[in-house]
Design goal:
The complex is a heterodimer of chains A (221) and B (353). Chain A is of the alpha/beta class and 221 residues long. Chain A has one domain: P-loop containing nucleotide triphosphate hydrolases (Rossmann fold, 3-Layer(aba) Sandwich). Helix content of chain A is 34%, strand content 19%. Chain A has 8 helices and 8 strands. In chain A, helix 6 packs across helix 7. Chain B is 40% helix and 19% strand. The longest helix of chain B has 21 residues. In chain B, helix 4 links the parallel strand 4 and strand 5. In chain B, the strands form 3 sheets. In chain B, strands 3-2-4-5-7-6-12 form a 7-stranded mixed sheet, with helices on both faces. Chain B folds into 2 domains: 223 residues, Rossmann fold, CATH 3.40.50; 109 residues, Rossmann fold, CATH 3.40.50. Chain B is globular. By secondary structure, chain B is an alpha/beta fold. The chains are: A alpha/beta (221), B alpha/beta (353). The interface between A and B is medium-sized, with 24 and 30 residues.
Chain lengths: 221, 353
């Protein structure tokens, strides 16, 4: 894959898979960088947070920045006080998991002046063409523009995370390439990577560039 | 692209409602059902429908009453504490013979409780849900696909029997994501000559009310309503049986508990224990017949629930105390594990190996 900037911001439509991508991208980055930090800036959803993966982070020496209320069922929007380290401490390489839609992206706004000043970031839109409100390029780009307006920062690339959960087949991924290309054309942004569950990785690695294998964080019942 | 899309249970309810012709939604946000309202807020303006975030749950249910009076399909959704607030409105809907779909994505209680999943509103849903003599049809989905399918079914049943229908899900069902197909051909076939749609000076006024000051008149109306409930009980019972053919032990479970139970049953079968599942899909009308039948051939029925044991009372009534009915449950937002259910199965089978 291409070289990653110091800060990788992951935004996207609600339920597009930002957190799964964030966790697995952090695993990937940890293989190349020393000080890898995952920051959870989600103020929208009290469930399915990066903190669910805390044991995996600890095992790999990845640091997690998240609100003290994360996973406590205290259902209030809260941000971690130490999130300012993301822009103040230039020695860390960070993956920033931003909440869904424009509502979630508001939380990012506070850091934007510092992020822009340093200018060593990528803001990636995580897209899933199998989600009901982003089935095509037009609706996906609409969500992109809403997020950009909310946080005051413009996207620099796309992550194609199209999937239908556990049942996803290699064919579903191949079929989603057309959708991802259309979003790329409509937005003028490159597809930085395509993320797939680990079981599909070997079968697809010669067919799709920049493939990120993922261990899914939520387990089926 | 695939025929299926990836949806949260809450989103599936919202989209299925729209597909069923529901163009009016009134609600108030509460975890873990907020995505229903959020989805409606995005979709309704695009299709010329009405999304309105009311000032309270009480306001929302009374807006539902208003739209239902006009014969249009209408829905509200909430989670446990919010449903308690709606209970006055539910009674008024029933007392006025109005069809509507009410969604309860349950969380732990009582009181404000917590935000984790629960099935402890079973009594509230199936034994009335408000004051006075009345019933609601209560549907209990066990997958994201069923969240959608039973939403459509709920509108149909509500219209057919002129009564409020409740979709009783839980936080897990609302939050989990699964592939779904929403390929419905929806047809609204029920005439609503009672609806307040304007007389055009061509007919008498239709009056929608639950106020009847003459007791004999009110009695007649309630008795007539109960005749209709009898028809529902005869015709609309839904349930699933899993591995019941040769079962010595029967699990009773609905919703998320049934999924946990299936995992435990599969494991028990590997150990040679003959255990099956009866999963009520309609909680009212309750599937009495399959439990009555099971009571003649199994040695124990285990009710697996996310409560201190509520459905267990209906299971006991259904099997007329012919076999022991025991409880395997967690409450307060906790979910029984497959291991816990397997342990109960092993005990019922005659102790641990």
């Amino acid at each position: 894959m291409n070289k990653f900037k110091r800060l990788t911001l992951l935004c996207g439509h609600y339920g597009s898979g930002k957190t799964n991508v964030a966790v697995n991208l952090a695993f990937y980055l940890k293989e190349q960088y020393n000080n890898v930090v995952v920051a959870d800036l989600d103020i929208v959803n009290p469930y399915f947070r990066t903190k669910d993966s805390i044991d995996d982070f600890k095992a790999r020496g990845i640091e997690l920045i998240c609100s003290q209320y994360t996973n406590t069922n205290v259902d209030i929007p809260a941000l971690p006080a130490n999130m300012y380290r993301l822009t103040a401490d230039k020695d860390i390489t960070a993956v920033i998991d931003v909440g869904g839609d424009d509502r979630g992206a508001y939380a990012l706004g506070r850091l934007v002046p510092e992020i822009k000043a340093e200018n060593n970031f990528d803001m990636l839109m995580v897209i899933n063409g199998y989600r009901p409100l982003t089935p095509d390029a037009e609706s996906t780009v609409e969500v992109m523009r809403e997020i950009e307006t909310a946080c005051g920062l413009e996207f620099t690339g796309l992550v194609n995370n199209s999937n239908i959960g556990e049942e996803t087949t290699a064919e579903d991924i191949i079929k989603s390439i057309g959708y991802a290309n259309e979003v790329s054309q409509a937005s003028g942004l490159p597809i930085v990577m395509t993320s797939v569950k680990r079981e599909l990785y070997d079968g697809l690695k010669n067919k799709i560039d920049n493939l990120l294998p993922m261990t899914l964080q939520a387990k089926p019942v | 692209m695939a025929d299926k899309i990836l949806m949260k249970g809450n989103e599936a309810i919202a989209e299925a409602a729209i597909k069923a012709g529901c163009m009016h939604y009134f609600g108030y946000p509460i975890t873990p059902q907020t995505e229903v309202a959020a989805y409606m807020a995005k979709r309704m303006p695009k299709i010329g429908g009405c999304f309105l975030q009311a000032e309270s749950e009480i306001a929302a249910i009374n807006m539902v009453y208003g739209v239902a009076s006009t014969g249009k399909r209408v829905m509200t959704s909430s989670s446990s504490p919010g449903i308690s607030l709606k209970s006055e409105g539910l009674s008024y809907l029933a007392g006025s013979d109005l069809p509507a779909l009410i969604v309860n994505v349950q969380r732990g209680g009582p009181g404000l409780g917590g935000i984790q999943p629960s099935q402890a509103d079973y009594f509230q849903a199936t034994k009335g849900g408000g004051h006075g003599d009345f019933k609601m049809i209560v549907l209990a989905p066990s997958s994201v696909q069923e969240m959608a399918d039973l939403t459509v079914k709920g509108f149909d049943l509500a219209d057919k029997y002129r009564m409020p229908t409740m979709l009783l899900a839980d936080g897990t069902m609302g939050q989990m994501m699964e592939p779904v197909s929403l390929d419905y051909e929806v047809k609204e076939t029920v005439d609503k000559p009672w609806a307040t749609t304007g007389t055009k000076m061509e007919r008498e006024h239709n009056i929608v009310t639950s106020l009847f000051l003459k007791p004999d008149e009110l009695e007649d109306l309630v008795v007539e309503r109960y005749e209709r409930y009898k028809v529902v009980e005869e015709n609309e019972v839904m349930y699933e049986e899993y591995m019941m053919d040769d079962a010595d032990i029967c699990i009773a479970a609905f919703g998320i508990a049934a999924r946990v139970a299936k995992n435990a049953i599969n494991e028990a079968r590997k150990q040679g224990i003959k255990v099956g599942l009866i999963r009520p899909i309609t909680l009212w009308p309750f599937p009495v017949a399959p439990f009555k039948k099971a009571a003649d051939k199994v040695k124990e029925i285990i009710s697996v629930e996310l409560s201190m044991g509520q459905m267990i009372e209906d299971v006991r009534l259904a099997c007329e105390c012919k076999v022991p009915v025991t409880l395997c449950s967690r409450t307060g937002g906790m979910i029984p594990s497959p291991e816990q259910v397997l342990e109960a199965i092993t005990r019922a089978n005659g102790g641990a190996k």
